[in-house]
């Protein structure tokens, strides 16, 4: 289990527990449950300047314990 920090542009910050083997789509589903409301399909996650694609695992993006991701809404 790893903990990933997700913050949106409104200043809301959450910590999501997940596995490195989870896909970005699976991770978005967990984020949408914790954020309360928005459909995971409307969430866009970024690490640095790159937008994360749904079918790739967190491990492939080198997302580990304590990694910070930015959340945007489409």
Care to describe what's here?
The longest helix is centred in the middle third of the chain and has 12 residues, at 24-35. The chain is α+β, with helices and mostly antiparallel strands. The model has no long low-confidence stretch (mean pLDDT 95). A 5-stranded mixed sheet has the order 2-1-5-3-4, with helices on one face. The protein has 1 helix and 5 strands, in the order E-E-H-E-E-E. The protein has one domain: Ubiquitin-like (UB roll), CATH 3.10.20.
Summarize this structure briefly.
The chain is α+β, with helices and mostly antiparallel strands.
Q: Looking at this structure, what is the CATH superfamily? A: Phosphatidylinositol 3-kinase Catalytic Subunit, Chain A, domain 1
Total count of strands: 5
CATH class: Alpha Beta
Describe the global form. Answer: globular
Helix/strand/pairing category: alpha+beta
Widest β-sheet, arrangement of strands: 2-1-5-3-4
Number of helices: 1
- According to CATH, what is the topology? Ubiquitin-like (UB roll)
Task: Give the SSE order as H and E letters.
Answer: EEHEEE
Helical content stands at 10-25%
- Kindly provide the radius of gyration, computed on alpha-carbon positions and rounded to a whole number of angstroms: 11 Å
Number of domains: 1
Mean pLDDT value: 95
Largest sheet features = 5 strands, mixed
């Amino acid at each position: 289990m790893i903990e990933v920090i997700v913050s949106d542009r409104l200043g809301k910050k959450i910590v999501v527990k997940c596995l490195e083997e989870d896909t970005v789509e699976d991770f978005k589903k967990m984020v949408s449950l914790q954020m309360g409301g928005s459909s995971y399909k409307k969430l866009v996650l970024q690490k640095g300047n790159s937008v994360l694609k749904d079918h790739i695992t967190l491990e492939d993006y080198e997302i580990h314990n304590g990694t910070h991701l930015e959340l945007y809404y489409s």
